[in-house]
Amino acid sequence: MSDSARLQTDLVRLVDQGRRPDKTLAPRAPAAAIPARAGAGRPSRPPGANDGVGVGIASPLTETDYNDRVFYSTSTVTSSDGLFTFRVRRLQTLLMDDAGGNRVQFNFQEPAT
After folding, report:
1. pTM of the entire structure?
2. pLDDT, tens digit, for every residue of 20-41?
3. How high is the pLDDT of residue 113?
4. Domain ranges within the chain, ordered by starting residue
5. What are phi and psi of 88, to 5 degrees?
6. For 7-30, what is the mean pLDDT?
7. How far apart are CA 111 and CA 113, in angstroms?
8. Which residues lie closer than 8 Å to 95 by C-beta, 6 or more apart?
9. Which of 94, 75, 95 is nearest to 85 (CA)?
């Protein structure tokens, strides 16, 4: 097929696309309104029940002693081009106190090397 014949065929296709019927979806029916109602939240446990279940960490968290940190063994990391070498101490355990004076312990997974 010559270039002029191909151009003519492509132009006919473009013109025909403009003549095709509109294939848009029909308008959607409006959704029904949600009926008005009132409600109230109820606690699942009575106030003052402090059995340790459902009690969260009170913000802010504060680290009281840097020496409480536990680290994995020191590892060496080399840059991809081999020019730089770094010694890295990765954190294993971190102890903090929350606003309520409770001790919170964070345990970190040992990273893959």
Report:
1. 0.46
2. 666 778 888 888 888 888 888 7
3. 62
4. 59-113
5. -125, 130
6. 80
7. 6
8. 63, 64, 65, 68, 69, 103, 104, 105, 106
9. 75
